[in-house]
Automatic annotation (TrEMBL):
Record field: transmembrane: none
Keywords of the record: Signal
A Pfam family recorded for this sequence: SBP_bac_3
Name of the protein this chain belongs to: Amino acid ABC transporter substrate-binding protein, PAAT family
Cleavable signal peptide: 1-20
Organism for this UniProt entry: Paracoccus sediminis
Top-level taxon of the source organism: Bacteria
Location of the Solute-binding protein family 3/N-terminal domain: 30-256
Amino acid sequence: MGGLRRLTCALILGAAPAAAQVADLRSTTQFRVCADPANAPMSVRDGSGFENKLAEAFGEWLGLPVTYTWFPSGAGFIAKTLRAGECDVVMGYAQGDELVQNTNHYYTSVYGIVTRKDSSLATVDRLTDPALKNNDLGVVAGTPPATIMARAGLAKDMRGVDLFVDRRVEDPVGDLIGGVKDGSLDAAVLWGPLAGPRVKADPDLQFTPLLRETAGPRMFYRITMGVRLPEQEWKRELNSLIRRHQDQINAILRDAGVPLVDDYGKGMLP
């Protein structure tokens, strides 16, 4: 979702070792992934996340077994995993961050509104819609939609949660979606890859992508993999796999319930 994870990961801080120390660290015998062990529905230690499934696919295409270095998202994630040479790729990283070198993006997704299907807000598709006023609205603090909501005069209606918590014991996104389900919240504004898979199987809930939002900041983000800054050959190898297997990548994401949009955030992919 990036923000949201790896929107959120793009906020992670950490000092980088010198380029010469990391230039030749990539394993040639394993597909070594840096991941949060409790970032459902993205990465989960038991392998059930959609990023886990994508990692398995890339490992198969490379002919390498997948191994993980687990570390909670937050300050120090990149420094203590990728840059320390413990692993070679971060799945699901927002395009444009300077802490890593981005591959080409392999999907684009969007923020959206989670509501009950029988809610009076079920047709809302813009954060500037006056219908949102005087409702209890869940949102992740510091994310792009929170900025738009505050500017739209919804500050008093916002019920914020912090995404940077120990998700082994806390589940802020799950709590927001649960609040919509039980009626303690009227809606929640969330990053599609975090919300879509959770809403997909629930007959009472829906996710409406914010494709018509005209106020900034933008609501869609292109998602890449992150590799170490000097590793150009590794990036090119992953880019080639993305290009050749885009249909399979899309199928894995769709099956998980991740909302996929075009590269410019104008429409949903078929």
